[in-house]
């Protein structure tokens, strides 16, 4: 199953240490495509595992994690304006189940 | 059609002015749910209009906008950890087509 994970992690409270840890967890489960956006291709067990790790890491009062279920089909269109990946693709190829479209249609 | 829009807008180059303008554009087309994440419910004409405005506003070399097509059905599950909305819902209710789930299943 394909998912999109986005987060807002407060960096005031602990000078960004929690942000780094959350980012590291998310990168171990999927592909980072923007600073706080990850494309994931996980089975239910792995997704539950990820949720538990994030649940233990974030501060629920000031942090926010959203996980959108995108669907099962393996190819998914994402329309991109500007730079394709803000961050270096950690494992180019393996997660390339999102086909990038850049035309305006 | 439901969409998810996420962006990374570089703030070094013009002290965040472009970021504010991009955020304002996106807020006029949908619901901001995290600092750089918006849930949109738009017909094709409005989506094209939004893309053109963003295309004119961003710096394609340093900014990144990604738009994910989520689907047509009106109710969509988004799993949320921590704070539901990082930012004040601009128009609570009107865009509430995403039903928030907080259990770990």
TrEMBL record, chains A, B:
Enzyme class at the top of the EC tree: hydrolase
Domain of life: Bacteria
Enzyme nomenclature, EC number: 3.1.-.-
GO molecular function, one term: hydrolase activity
BP term (GO), one: maintenance of CRISPR repeat elements
InterPro entries attached to this UniProt entry: CRISPR_associated_Cas2, Virulence_VapD/CRISPR_Cas2
Signal peptide: none
Keywords recorded for this protein, A-Z: Antiviral defense, Endonuclease, Hydrolase, Magnesium, Metal-binding, Nuclease
SUPFAM superfamilies per the UniProt record, alphabetical: TTP0101/SSO1404-like (SSF143430)
Cofactor(s) demanded: Mg(2+)
Job of this protein: CRISPR (clustered regularly interspaced short palindromic repeat), is an adaptive immune system that provides protection against mobile genetic elements (viruses, transposable elements and conjugative plasmids). CRISPR clusters contain sequences complementary to antecedent mobile elements and target invading nucleic acids. CRISPR clusters are transcribed and processed into CRISPR RNA (crRNA). Functions as a ssRNA-specific endoribonuclease. Involved in the integration of spacer DNA into the CRISPR cassette.
NCBIfam families referenced in this protein's UniProt entry, alphabetically: cas2
Protein name per its UniProtKB record: CRISPR-associated endoribonuclease Cas2
Record organism: Candidatus Weimeria bifida
């Amino acid at each position: 199953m394909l998912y999109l994970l986005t987060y807002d992690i407060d960096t005031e409270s602990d000078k960004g240490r929690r942000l780094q840890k959350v980012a590291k967890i998310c990168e171990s489960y999927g592909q980072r495509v923007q600073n706080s956006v990850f494309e994931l291709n996980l089975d239910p067990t792995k997704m539950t595992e990820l949720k538990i790790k994030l649940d233990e890491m974030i501060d629920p009062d000031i942090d926010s994690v959203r996980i959108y279920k995108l669907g099962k089909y393996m190819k998914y269109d994402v329309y991109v304006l500007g730079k394709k990946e803000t961050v270096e693709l950690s494992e180019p190829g393996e997660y390339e189940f999102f086909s990038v479209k850049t035309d305006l249609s």
